[in-house]
Known about the structure:
Elements: H1 2-28, H2 37-64
Amino acid sequence: MKTGLWAVAGFLAGGVLAGAIGILLPSVVSISQAEGAYAMGVAFFWVPAGAIAGAVLGVVMARRR
Length: 65
């Protein structure tokens, strides 16, 4: 049960962090926004990838405790 909660927390935190970085990155670095391609990449690749990485990290952290 505890491992599952850590996984869910990591999933949410990873997704939110990846989304926040994806939203803030174009204001720091010049990134083309042509036809929404950047936003689609963030929404459909980086946020899910961050969420999965966060879930894996959450499970690892739960196992180490």
